[in-house]
Each structure stands twice: as structure tokens, then as C-alpha cells.
Amino acid sequence: MKEPEMNTTHPNCSTCPVFTPSERPKDECGVFGLYKHPEAAQITYFGLYALQHRGQESAGISVNRGINDKIFSHKGMGLVPEIFNMDDLKRIEGGSAIGHVRYSTTGDSVLANAQPFVVNHRHRSYALAHNGNLVNAHIIREELEEQGSIFQTTMDSEVFLHLFIKNLIKGDYESAILKAVSKLEGAYSMILLTCKGEIIGMKDPNGFRPLALGKLNGHYVLASETCAFDLIQAEFIRELAPGEIVIISEDGIKSIKHPNAAAKKSLCIFEYIYFARPDSTIDGKNVYEMRKAHGRRLAQESHVDADLVMPFPDSGNYAAIGYAAESGIPFEMAMIRNHYVGRSFIQPTQSMRDFAVRVKLNPVRELIKGKDIIIVEDSIIRGTTAKTRVKALKELGAGKIHMRVSCPPHKFPCYYGIDFSSKGELIAAQKPLDELTEYLGLDSLHYLSIEGMLEASGVNDPEANFCKACFDGTYPVPFDPNFTKQCMG
Ligand code: SF4
Predict the structure, then answer these.
(1) Where would I find the Glutamine amidotransferase type-2 domain in this sequence (predicted)?
(2) CB within 8 A of 439, min separation 6: which ones?
(3) Residue 71 sits in the same domain as residue 207
(4) Which residues pair with 63 in a beta bridge?
(5) Same domain, 106 and 245
(6) Distance, CA 177 to ligand 1 centroid (Å)?
(7) Which of 39, 269, 314, 331 lies 20 to 30 Å from 473 when distance is taken between CA atoms?
């Protein structure tokens, strides 16, 4: 039987300079795993499809087929449907599967860094899919290289596999995993696949990134977000606890605790504001409902008279619905999104770069002309897109334009897996509110307060502790800013 091609490339990769650049923060990664299912690879494909919003640079699926202790992979650059076809997937069926969609936060955007990352050791293979960012990977890597380790990629995730293999004595996965994760600092929700088909899910002690456990017709499944379970019709069981490690094998499921499991829970609050899909539920809280609650609170904090409330679709949709409901001001979809603009939209020339923004959204002039408008956005990172869109509304004869943002100003970089990595990229760190209001061409600008964000997110719930470092600079896990973002790239 023909074996699948390994590491298939796709020409439409996001490293191509003619593709539309986006100033939106990039999602970090999505992971998926299914334990011993006759259609594990095909179901993993659909799981990745549901998680595509978490990474669009590359994707991969690795499968243990019970053949010679090997793991078979199919990876490529681009979107999930560009990389896989059903014939490829059928050829690697059998056993357990893990999958990954990636946007690089450390490491270059090249095929070598596409995950799952597969290593071979003593005639046995292991594959890893990682979501997050290890803040001490450079230190571990240096130590390991001094001891003779040779690294194949620039990814932070690779250090975990080195540590795991180093500590793997007589196939004792549990002890090797515990020793390996005890060295890691930072954010990780990871899934490891062994050549025997065991699947091991791991969440860091702070629980920065989501990772949910479910069951599909009796087969355990893990996914970054519950929307993947909905698509494959799996039953949601629970979110992994911070610092929880689950080992899924022929003996069933075993849950063990990370050696540092007592760390303070710090779930990334930006998952709710922006990253996760609105149909996902994280830690018992539905993302759509959470965004609406942020919008409601924003309306309470920043009332202004206007004729309509509108989002820039799709980012502000749900907060805008909440804002309109709370304020009593009508909600309108006064900008229409072109759903057929893909990654392959080419900017004709530099002088025509406005097209890159305009092609995606077009205002409904009849709704705009002569109206006072409240635009609800979920975040402002660099501000250039918002500025262009506000200008377009003014040109159509809008009256007053107010912007309301459903999170506090981003003033600090993220070191736990999100791509706004320097203060220079964050316009709210560069300009005070009045200057920013003028720069964006607005009549008024208001951000949700940190207190409002936490209260609307249910922070009175003792279980709900969030990372909010990009808003207030209080980082839950210490790091060296000189190395954390540079070490692997
Ligand atoms: S710094 Fe911001 S984006 Fe990064 S993990 Fe914390 S809340 Fe999320």
C-alpha cells in the first residue's frame, strides 16, 4: 500500500509577501487528539477544521497505526482543507491520532516547524502538538545543547520532547512526563501521542490555554475548544484542570497532577474576548455569553446617545449585541463582510493598500448617512485598520462616530502565546486616550475597565482567575523579556 507523503507543502503559505497582512492579533495554536478510533485521522481532520481560527499558517495530523512502532504524519503550510484530502487521510487510518493548527508565536513560519512534531527514539516514535509558549525554553535548550542534544527545529515545544525522552526509563510514561513538565515554565496545553497509541493531555499549572476532554462513541477525545466536539458530535466531559495530566490508554483514563499544580490559575481572559470561537464553552462559561456580558458592562460604563450600535464584523459582533441590548439603542449590521476574501487576496501595489481593508468590509451607506454611530470593537492593537474604517464611515456622511472597546487598552506584550510581542506594536501603549481618539478620527473612545471586564467575566466566582497581563502588566509567570520572544526564532 502506498504510504502517505510526508510533510507535504502547499504554495499558498502565509510567508508569501503578496498576501494581505492583518493587524489583528494572531491566534496561537489549536490541538486535537482522538484515542483509538477506526476513523481517527478523518475525525481529527474535522476537529482541526473546527479549530482553524486558532492557527492558519500550517496544520498536521499524526497517527499511530500499530505498524512497527512508527507514527505517520501528514503536514503542510496553509489551511486545513488545502493540506489534506480524504485519500491521504484514509491511507493513514488506524489507531490514535493527534492534530495541530499553527500560527507561529515562537519559531519561524516554515514547514519544519509545523506540528505535530515527531521524534524517533530507540525504534519508537512520539508526536507532540502544543498550544502556548514556554518562557524558559531558551534556558532548557541551552542546557540540553551543552549536554549534546541536537535540535531539529526552532520551536519552543521541542524542549519538552527532549526532556521526556531523557527521562523515559523502561516505558514509564508517567514518571517521564512528570519530570519533563516540572522543568517547563509558561503556557502549554499539549497532546502527546505514543507509538502504541496512548494519548497524553497536559495543561500547565496556571491553565493559560483551554483543553477539553470529551468522548466520541466510547473513544476519548481532547480538543482546544468544545466547538470541535460539536462538529464531530462528541460528548463534552470536562475542561482539564490547571496542572492536570491525563493518560489515555488501554487501561482507560488516568488523571495525575503536575508537580507544581498549586500555582494560581491564570486562564487567558483574551480567549473569551477575542481568540476562542463564540460557540465554545471554556471553563463552564460560554464565549458568546461572555462577550455579550462584556458589551453590556461597556454600555453601563460609557453611555452616549446615538442612532445605532454596530460592530466591525465579525470581531465586535457579540459585544455589540450586548451593548445594544443594555443601552436600548438599535443594533445594525451596517458593515457587510465579504466572506469570499481568502488569504490569497493579493495587494496589487503598495499605493492601493487601502483595498486590503476595504475589500473585506463595505458599509451600508443608507444606514450610515447622517447617523450618530457607536462602533463596538473587541480590541484595538495597532489601530491602522480601525482608522481606515472610521474614515470610510465619515466619507459616507456619518454624523458623530463613537468607538467602544470591549476590553481594556492593550499596553503590555504577551509572553504566553499571543503574537503582540512588543510595546511598540500596541497603539494604546504609545498614545494617551485623547491622542488616540483624534488619531482614529473619532468623536469619543472608551475602553471597558479592568474591573468591569473581571466582574462581567464572573471573577467573583472563586474558580475564575484570569491572566490579564497584557492590560495591567501583572505577569503570572516570570520571564526574561530579552530572551522569551527571541530565543527560538
Ligand atoms: S498576557 Fe493577555 S493575551 Fe497573553 S495570556 Fe495573558 S491575558 Fe492572554
Answers:
(1) 29-251
(2) 383, 387, 427, 431
(3) yes
(4) 72, 97
(5) yes
(6) 26
(7) 314
